[in-house]
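Thread: "does anyone have the structure for this chain?"

Original post by V.I.:
We have the sequence but no experimental structure in hand. Need at least a predicted one for the grant figures.
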Amino acid sequence: MFMHDRTRDIRAARRAFAVLCAVSVALIVVGCSTSAQDDQTQSVPIAPMTPSAKRAAIATSFPAEVPVPVGDLIRAEAQGEDAWDYVVEVPTTVEDLTAWYRDAYVGRQWEMLSAESFRKGSDAGIVLRFRKGNAESSVSVYRMGGVGPVRASVTLGVGTPVLQTQ
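Reply from O.Q.:
Generated one for you, C-alpha cells below.
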C-alpha cells in the first residue's frame, strides 16, 4: 500500500510539473508576442536631417535652419523660392513626433502660435503653427486611420502667411 501511494504521488508530481511547464511556455510565448507588439508602437529616437540632406531631398532653396526629421519623404515640393511643403513618415508615436517638432522649432527661436488637436474621419492628430520673423510654418502630425507609421505634413512660407500660400 505504501508503494501504491508513492507511485500515485510521483504521477501527480509529474502531472503538476507538465502543467507548470505548459503554463511557463504559454507565458513566454505571450510575453514575447506582447514585447513584439510593444516594439512596433514604441518610439525610436528622432534625428534631424542635415542641411545638405534637406536641400537634396526637398529643394535646393529649402532653408537650412528649418527642422526636418529623418524619415521617409512621401512628398516634397518647392513652390517658388519662398514656399515649401513636405510629408514625412517617421517610425514613432504622434506624441513623440509632435514633441520633437515643438522642441526643434522652439529651440531655433520660432514662436509657437497654436497647437490644436483634430479628428477627420478615422485620422487624428495635432496641428502646430509657428512663426519666426516673416516666416510661418504649419506642422500636422497624424497617424492615418490610427494605424501605420506617423506622418508629418509641413508647409513653410517666407514673407507670406502660410495659410495664404496654399
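V.I.: this helps a lot. Strands lie at 72-78, 83-90, 111-120, 123-132, 135-143, 150-158.
O.Q.: and Helices lie at 2-41, 51-57, 94-107.
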